[in-house]
Design a protein that fits this description.
The active site is at 341 (nucleophile). By secondary structure, the chain is an alpha/beta fold. Helices cover 38% and strands 14% of the residues. The strands form 2 sheets. Strands 7-6-5-8-9-11-10 form a 7-stranded mixed sheet. α3 (39-54) crosses α4 and α15 packs parallel to α16 (349-358). It is globular and about 90 Å long.
Length: 406
Amino acid sequence: MKALNQLKTFQRILAEYPADVPLGKFLPGFFRQNKQMGSTDRKVASRLIYNYFRLGRALANHPDEDRLMVAEFLCNNQLNSFIQHFKPDWAACIGFTLDEKLAIVKATYPDFKLTDVYPWSDKLSAGIDREAFLKSFFIQPDLFIRVRKGFEHQVKSELTKAEVTFKDEGNNCLSLPNGTRLENIFQKQHLFEVQDRSSQQTAQFFQPQKWEHWWDACAASGGKSLLLYEQEPTVKLVVSDIRESILANLDERFEQAGIRKYQKKLVDLTGNVDPELANYEFDGIILDAPCSGSGTWGRTPEMISHFEDHRMEFFQRLQKTITPNVTKYLKEGKPLIYITCSAFKAENEEVVDYLVKNLNLRLEDQQVLQGYTHKADTMFAARLIQNPRPVPEPEVIPFDMNMTLQ
């Protein structure tokens, strides 16, 4: 009876869920409207709907209930009453390896294809292991924090006291079980920043020097800027974004981090930004470019079902439009750090090739940050250097022998 009620709740959520709203924003509203659901009911309902979307577009022609059973089988390693009720034969195999379970699914559903889970695997960036990337969608990503320097012992001590398992990933990065309620463990939130492992790794491309002027052009809530300050506290920083509300979040995070001196600008990078940045020259620019977010869909698997191919072209055009409006403020010999949280080569290597060919930049380094091997997001970062700008030749005025001297 319990499993049947859980199935009915899943069906209600799926029927009511609008495609244009992130699942993480929809579920709290659904639970508020259904106050009779206890904490365990909410937890199970969340697990079922997220696992369902983790199946991506595989078995798309099968009933939702069948697809849910397959997803529950592939995404769980521990026995639960739901799968035991509906699929007792599969429940006995719940601890098998993912490869073994995929074989069982294939035997039951011959039309199952791993490539259907994420049907753009032929468009992935070079360096991404396609099979490993596809299998990662059946594993929930971890929660990552970046511990501020000097607080490492305190943070680890508090986590140990709260009996939270964690792994030290190096460079002050800790991985925790997804869903860890940090607010219930730490009274002081300034000890760390919640930031994905791959996002933290982009800092290796910055290399700021003392007293340099940097611009975080798509700053959002300031995660990359905080990484920059951690590397070099003397940098003079300009942050900008098109969204005023998210810059307010940046102000709050900067205040918690003790950062007071920075300039903030509301800027639309698709147009002329001279009114806001005339006479500015920067020693480094971070461009965390708008993108499909396809490297983060392990956290938002509902996006797989809603994404359309033409969006790749849209974001590539947007990136090619924005970047020239940014690099005009970059000093010669200085770096542009181009970052996306996309797994698509159209938004990564293809855009970098365009920048090198058309914007007087040379590529120093580029890398896919393979988050799928660490239960993290997959991202892309490139460091490009502004070449010397060509000096315009003086205009030559031909001498006219017949011109009358005045």
